[in-house]
Amino acid sequence: MDACAAEATAYGNEKADESIAQYKKTCQDAGCEIIVLEDSVLAQLKEKASVVYDMVRKDQGDELVDKLLAAIESVK
After folding, report:
1. Taking the CB of residue 65, how many other CB atoms lie within 10 A of it?
2. Which of 12, 45, 57, 72 is deepest in the core (most CB within 10 A)?
3. CA–CA separation, 58 vs 50, rounded Å?
4. Looking at the whole model, is its pTM more than 0.70?
5. pLDDT for the residue 42
6. Which residues 6+ apart lie within 8 Å of 57 measured at CB?
7. At CB < 8 A and 24+ separation, what contacts does 43-51 make?
8. What is the 8-class DSSP label of residue 31?
9. Which long-range contacts (CB under 8 A, 24 or more apart) does 39-44 make?
10. For 27-70, what is each residue's pLDDT tens digit?
11. Phi, psi of 54 (to 5 degrees)
12. Distance, CA of 9 to CA of 65 (rounded, Å)
């Protein structure tokens, strides 16, 4: 079972990577410039967004926010 799950995950990740590459190409072909932010800039953005996370936690609960953040972390 674990081997099947690992294989399925790898396949899904590969397909997702291909899809993302195609989306990026489509954007670039349309004249968009894709930039990669430095880690220091991402850290600043994360710090500034903490107010929003707090607001969503208050309105929707910790469980939802924690699941969202875990999902984001899992695809990095």
Report:
1. 17
2. 57
3. 12
4. no
5. 92
6. 65
7. none
8. T
9. none
10. 999 999 999 999 999 999 999 999 999 999 999 999 999 999 99
11. -60, -40
12. 24
- The residue type found at 40 is S
Residues listed for the chain: 76
Only one residue has tokens 């995950």, namely: 9
CA distance 56 to 53: 5
Q: What angle do CA 73, 74, 76 make, to 5 degrees?
A: 65
- Dihedral angle of Cα 48, 74, 55, 57, to the nearest 10 degrees: -150
Structure tokens given for 65:
């926010």
Q: Which helix (H) or strand (E) holds 26?
A: helix 2-29
Q: Mean pLDDT over all residues of the chain?
A: 92
